[in-house]
Amino acid sequence: MANHHEKTSGSNKILFRILDGIEWVGNKLPSPLLLFALLALIVILSSALFSGVSVTNPTSGEVITVNNLLTIDGLQYIFQNAVDNFIGFAPLGAVLVTMLGIGLAEQTGLVQAALKGTVFSFPGKLLTAALVFAGVMSSIAVNAGYIVLPPLGAALFLGLGRHPLAGLTAAFAGVSGGFGANLFLTSTDAILAELTAEAAATIDPAYADTIAVSMNWFFAMVSVVLVTAVGTWVTTRIVEPRLGNYEGNGTEEDIETLAVQEKKGMRYAGVGFLITAAVMAYLSIGPLRGDEKYLESPFFDSLVFVIFILFFVPGLIYGITTKVIQNDKDLTQFLGKTMASMSGYIALAFTAGQFIAYFGETNMGTVIAIKGAAFLNNTGFDGFGLILVFILITMGINFFIGSSSAKWVILAPVFVPIMMNLGYSPEFTTVIYRLSDSVTNIITPLLLYFPMIIAFAQRYDKSIGIGTLISMMLPYSVALLISWVILLFIWILLGIPVGPGAEIYY
């Protein structure tokens, strides 16, 4: 990755040197594929070393013990589940299915034509903010933003003559760093509200019944503005200057006006997209509505396939209109090229899948989380000092358990009662947890989509490793942490409810 520090200020030079050091150290690690294989081996050996270490689950009272994978049962698990761990790696199927649709739109030239149109229609100064904002709002579609926005952000920046990795990081920062923020209520709000209510019921069952899905809505809406502003500032002031000019194999898109055939293809593809979107909208309130809550409906469970269709149909229409696709063999060839471009990620998913599965099977992540919560309970801190310790512990635990809801299942029964006894409401405690979780999402390799982001980045720079990605994302993480802590302090000072009827104090 090229770095051009000559024209930067003194403070930025120091920051860039620190980030360069982090990148250098990180990239001295093996390739991501081999690194996850080594981490899987370390988990196996650690499970033997810490075998028998146990904790009590504060929710169920169940004793959880570290499982040894170097026993006969453990070795049988490793060998019998290798294929299932690979196939069951959560992002694998979602990424491949989505990329079939995106890849067809890219292969036929629809994405490039859209980029050309963007150059002439979108205010350049607002592009970065729009990309970060789109990333934040993508949590409406659960994890779909991870798959769609980073590669599109990179392509968009490249098409506008900017460094593609800056577009990728801006989108990733919005999607992952802003996962706890949104202007609308999401399935995450519903899940966390339920877990918070269960934890609060241990202290005050009557109060627990008043906890609503909208409990963090006010704070989440303001956080959208914060994440968008911070993400935009970090991208333009730190990430892009550090990256310098793009000197990779990718080429800047031709930004001449669209040809007649391209314009025709865009029009037809646009009509196709609108019709497809209308059909999907009907399905969401009709056959795929289901009997459950809307955010838990079959439609939301099918979002990966929905996104595939929304890209595939316009891409196919554009290809046929511009005569790039003339028969089924052309279509098959384009889809094959897309899958070939994902071969590196598929190989990476095998070792990453083993590591994540082993970590879960050994229970080490759960043991670490519960012991971390117990440490917080024994610190003796109160007030804002306790809040800061709570934030730091949650950030640390995020390096061991990637799922937001999985962590809250473990931590809510400990943190919520502690904070209620100190006078803080369960709703406010959940806000603290959500921002703590978000700021380290973008720098933890245990995030399920972290290997995928590396694979996307390697399209533009084959040498990129974990160190490069962490060094690019660390400024976002630090800036979001500082900004959110300041916002939290102001929120406490002014005593603003974090959601409708959700006061700060219990």
Task: Give an account of the 3D structure.
With 506 residues, the protein is mainly α. It has one domain. Helix content is 69%, strand content 1%. The chain contains 23 helices and 2 strands. It has helices spanning 10-27, 32-49, 72-80, 82-87, 90-107, 110-121, 127-137, 144-159, 164-177, 187-200, 205-208, 217-243, 260-285, 298-301, 303-321, 328-341, 343-362, 364-377, 383-397, 404-421, 426-441, 450-457, 466-494; strands spanning 54-56, 63-65. A two-stranded antiparallel ribbon has the order 1-2. Strand 1 and strand 2 (63-65) form a beta hairpin. The chain is globular. The chain starts with 9 loop residues before the first helix and ends in a 12-residue tail after the last helix. It comes from Lentibacillus salicampi. InterPro entries: AbgT. Pfam families: ABG_transport (PF03806).
**Strand order within the widest sheet?**
1-2
- Give the number of DSSP strands: 2
Q: Work out the radius of gyration.
A: 24 Å
Structural class by sheet pairing and helices:
mainly alpha
In short:
The chain is mainly α. The protein contains 23 helices and two strands.
